[in-house]
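A quick aside before the break. I want you to see a complete sequence-to-structure record at least once, exactly as it would be stored in a machine-readable document. Don't worry about memorizing anything.
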Amino acid sequence: MAANWRFYLVQTILVVLLAALVWRVVELQVLSKDFLIDQGTSRWQRVELINAPRGSLMDRHGEPIAVSTPVVSLWADPRELNPADIPRLAELSGVPAQTLSARQQQHRAFMYVRRHMEPAEAEAILNRGLSGVYGVTEYKRFYPAGEVAAHVVGFTDVDDRGQEGVELAFENQLRSIPGRKEVIRDLLGRSVRDVGELEAPRPGKELRLTLDMRLQYLAYRELKKAVTSQGAKAGSVVIMDVHNGDILAMVSQPGFNPNNRQRMDAGAMRNRAMTDQFEPGSVLKPLAMASFLEQGLVRVDSTIDTSPGFMRLGTFSIRDIRNFGVMTMTDVIARSSNVAMARLALESDPQVNWDTYFRLGLGQDTGIGYPGEASGRLPNPVRWGSVEQATLTYGYGLSVTPLQLAQAFSSLANGGRRVNARLLMDAPVTGGEQVLRPEIADQVLSMMEAAVLPGGTGTRAQLDWFSIAGKTGTVHKVGAQGYDEDRYVSSFVGIAPMDNPRIVAIIIIDEPPPNRYFGGEAAAPVFRGIMTQAMPLLGINPDRIPPQARVEGRP
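That is the input. The structure line, written in C-alpha cells, reads:
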C-alpha cells in the first residue's frame, strides 16, 4: 500500500507538471501570441520619421536665396547610455561631459547630444558603437546671399521653423511634413534595413520672390557704403516696378548674417523698410501738389508769392531756406518751398487732401502679409487745425514706411493708377483703380523732373544717360523735448526713366552727419549709385546724352 501511494503521488505530480507545461505552451502560442510578437518586434524594429526639406526661396530669375541642406543630429536614450561612455562621447561630439551628464539626469527617454552635424562627422561617432547613441537626418537652412537679403527673407530656428521675414510670413507653404518608415536595428541600435514606408514625406513648397538679386546686391552695396561713410545710424532702400508693384529690391542697414545665429542682434534684424515709421518731410510735396491740381486750386503755370520767405500761424513759424519770391508750381517742387505748400494748403479742402493720400496707400499697410509691417499714421482731417493742415503738405504730422512711399509713387508713375506692392511671383497683381487723373500724374512727374535738374534740390541723383524724376526730403526727428535740432531723416524718391517710367526707388538715411543732412546730399547720391548700373541690367535703353558725351556739331 505504501508503494502504491508513492506511485500515484509521483504520477499525479507529473500529470500536473505536464498540464502546466501544455497550458504554458497554449498561452504562449495562442493566447499571448500577438502581444509577444509585438514585444519582440519592438526590440529590433522601430518606426522612424523621414524628415523632408523645407521649401526653397528663389529670386525672380531662379537664383537661390534660401535652401535646406541635410545634416545629422545625434541623440541618445538616457536609459541605454552608459555613464562610463559619456567622457568618450563628449570628446567625439565636442559637447562638455558635464552637459551630457546633466541631460541624462534630466531626460527619461530622449536627449539631444548635438544638433546639425555634418553627416560624415556624425557617422564617424555612430560607428564607435556607443550604446544608446543614435542619429537622425534633419535639414538646416542656408542663405547663399547672407546679409544681402536677410531682412526680407528672415530666418528659421534650429527646428527649421520660420521666425522672421518671409520664412515666418509663409510658414504654411514653406514647412515640410515628415513621413514615417519601419526599420530593423542591430544590437547597437543602428538601422540595418528598411522594412517599408508607412507614410511618404512631403517637402515644403518652393516660393519665388519678386526680388531681383542683381538689384538687391547693388542696393545693399550702395546703402551700406553710404551709411558707413556718413556715420549714419541706419538706412533703407526700396525699389519697385511701377507697373505691377513687384518689389525688386529691399535692403536695410545695419544688417545681420542669418547663417550665424550666435551673433544676431535684435536691433539689426528689423526690416526697417516695412516696420519703421517716420515723418516723410518734403518727399510728400508731389503727392500734396497732385491733390491741389485735382481740386483745380492751381494749374501748372500758376504762380505764388512766397515773400518774405516765412509765414506765421499763431505762434508757429514756417520757413524756407531763403526767400524764393514769386514761384511757379514747378519751382515749388524743384526748390522745395514749405511756405508755398503751406499757403496752398490753407486754401485747399482738407478732406480731399486726406482722400488723395489714402487712395495712394498712406495710413494703411500694403497687404502683402509681412510680419510686423507698420501701417503708418494718417490723422483724420476733422482734427486738423490750420497748423496741421499746412504742415501735412510738407511731410510733418503723419508717418509712413519706405514701402508705403514706394507704393504711392509707383501709382503716381503708373499714370495715376493704383499699384499694390507684391513680394511673391505667384501672388495676383492687384490695384489698377484710377486714383489720380493721368494728366495730373504726368504734370507732377514733370515737376519732379525739374527737381533733379540744375536749380533743383536733387541734382546729385541725376544719371548721365537716363532722364529721371525725383524729390528730396529732410525732416527733423522727434526727441524727448520735441523736434531735435541736430537729428534728421534724409530721403530721396526717384523715378526712372522719365519718358516711360519703369521703376521707383526710395532711399532713407537715418541720422546722417549734421554737416551733410539734406536729402539731396545724403540720400540722392545713393540713388545715382544704384541706378547707374541697374538701368542697363534691366535692359532699359538710354533716353538722353550727357553734355560731356556730345561731340561738337552733333546732337
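Two observations worth writing down. The chain has 19 helices and 21 strands. The mean pLDDT is 89. We'll return to this after the break.
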